[in-house]
Amino acid sequence: MPSYDVKLSGVNCMRCVNKITAYLATLDSQAVFCVNEPKKHPITHATVKTTLSADQLLTAIQQAGYQAQVLDKACSSTDGHHKDNHNTDTVKQTTAPSLAAGDSNDSITLALGGITCAACVARVEKALQAVPGVSKVSINFANRTAQIAGVNDAARLISAVEAAGYTANTIKNLEAAEAERSEKATQAYRHKRRHALFAIISGLGLMAYGLFGGNMMINSPASQFAWGVVGLFCLAIMFVSGKHFYRSAWMQLKHASCNMDTLIAMGTGAAWLYSMVVILFPQAFAEPSRHVYFEAAVMIIGMINLGQALELKARGKTSQAIRGLLDLRAKTATVIRQGSEQTIAVADVVIGDKIRVRAGEKIPLDGVLIEGQSRVDESM
After folding, report:
1. pTM of the model
2. Of the candidates 260, 245, 256, 263, the residue with the CA atom closest to the CA atom of residue 121
3. Is 359 helix (H, G, I), strand (E, B) or coil?
4. Cα dist from 122 to 128, 148, 164, 179, 247, whole Å
5. Contact status, residue 100 vs residue 351, Cβ threshold 8 Å
6. Cα dist from 33 to 25, 49, 97, whole Å
7. Peptide bond before residue 42 is cis, with ω within 30 degrees of 0
8. What is the arithmetic mean of pLDDT over 259-285?
9. Burial level of 20, CB count in 10 A (0-12/13-18/19+)?
C-alpha cells in the first residue's frame, strides 16, 4: 500500500485528525492516517497509507475541510513492521476516532450540581449548546456529568451552567472524580436517610393523632395556641429536612425557571402557610375550613427524602458494578514504534499506532488486524 508524507494546514487538534480519518475511511477502508507529532498543536505533518492516488488523497482532505500538500511518496508496502513467527501473537493498527488520547484537549468533562430531573438535564444541555463553538453536548444524568466537545474554555462553560441555575466544576482526573462523587453520594445517602426518618416519624405522629379522633380544627384560643406551637415545630422540621428543596426552588425562581424542587416547595409551603393563616385568623374562614395540614407538609418532605435516599443507594450499587467491569480493562498496551516495542498507558496510544497483543493478553483498544492469528474471548 503506498505511503505519503503529507503537510497539513488548518489541522489544529486530534478532533480534526479524527474528521479526516473518518472521511478517508469512506473512500478507502484500509486507509491509515498517522500523525507524526500528536501532542504538537497545530498538527502540520502526517503519514498516510492508502490505495488512493496523491491527487485523490489531497481532494479527500480538502473535502474534509482542510488543506494538504504531498511532500514525498514512499514505496514501502510492508511498513517495515516487526514480524513474529508465533501464530498466537497479533498486531493491530488503531483506527477508531475514540482512541485518540490527544482528543482529550478538545473536550471538557464537567461535574454538575443541582440536577434533579430530566427538565434540569434539558435546561443545562440547552445552556451549554448556546456557548459559541460547542459542537456536541452529552449529559449523563446517572452520574451528573456533562461532556462538551469543541470548546477548550472551561470557564465559559461553567458560567453558562451557573447562568441556568446550576453548579459545575471541571473534571481533570476521571478516576479521582468518580471516587469523590461516590464518597459524596454515600454522605448524601446518609444525610437524606436521617432527615427522611426525622420528618416521617414526626408526620406519622400528627397523622395518627388525626386518624384516631384528634381535633385538627381551629375552634378555640386554646387550639390556636397548641397548633401554633405545632406549626413552629413543623417549620423547624421543614427547614432541617427540606432546606435543599427550598434553596433549589429559589435558585430556579431567580433564573425564571422551575424544576421538581419548585413543586415540592410550593406544595409544602402552601400547606404550612394555609395552616398558619387559619391559626392566626380563624374568623376569616368558614368553620368547616378551619383545618390545619401540617402533617401533609412534613410527610411530603419526609417521603421525597426517603425516595431520593433509595435512589442514591441503588445508583451507588449500579456504579460499583460498572466500576468492577471497568477494572477489567487493559491499562497498558505494547506499542511498536520505530521497529521497537514499548509498553505505555492506553491513554497515550494514538491513531495509527501498531499494538502487539500476545497470547493471554487483553486487547486494549479497537483496531484493524494486520498481522498474526489467534483466538479471542469476546464475552467481555
Report:
1. 0.58
2. 260
3. coil
4. 10, 14, 11, 26, 20
5. yes
6. 10, 7, 11
7. yes
8. 94
9. buried
